[in-house]
Write a structure and sequence with these properties.
- The chain is mainly beta.
- It is about 0% helix and about 45% strand.
- It is built from no helices and 11 strands.
- The strands form 2 sheets. Strands 2, 4, 5, 6, 9, 10 and 11 form a 7-stranded mixed β-sheet that branches. A 4-stranded antiparallel β-sheet has the order 1-3-8-7, with no helix packed on it.
- Strand 4 and strand 5 form a beta hairpin.
- It is globular and about 40 Å long.
Length: about 130
């Protein structure tokens, strides 16, 4: 069974940058589309970015488009989320997730994802 572990969270000032890693184990990550989701205090979890199994397709939420970049290195069984020009509203717990139905590319729909990490916290504050 695929297991996912996120890392790289922390506290950053507005306008700063942060990079998150999602490392998979137990199964090759290239069988899955990968999504990054986030949940802010008191809010529902929302999709941030996703990437297809070999990286040919990416999708972003409008709130992060142009600021965040999703990528993956299947040889390292790892996906990444680079967050630039962060804003206080980016404060949340960030989760990576894997969708085994990778043939459709990638979607930002939470219910389509089968495996989830435990999350890593990003705090944006001056």
């Amino acid at each position: 069974q695929l297991q996912l572990v996120e890392s790289g969270g922390g506290l950053v000032q507005p306008g700063g940058s942060l990079s998150l890693d999602c490392v998979g184990s137990g199964f090759p990550l290239n069988y899955y589309a990968i999504g990054w989701f986030r949940q802010a205090p008191g809010k529902d979890r929302e999709g941030v970015a996703c990437i297809s199994d070999y990286g040919g397709i990416t999708n972003y939420a409008s709130s992060v488009k142009g600021r965040f970049t999703i990528s993956r290195d299947n040889a390292k069984n790892t996906a990444y989320l680079q967050a630039n020009s962060v804003k206080p509203e980016d404060t949340a717990v960030y989760y990576c997730a894997a969708d085994r139905d990778a043939i459709r590319g990638c979607v930002l729909t939470e219910l389509e994802y089968d495996y989830w990490g435990r999350g890593t916290q990003i705090g944006v504050s001056s």
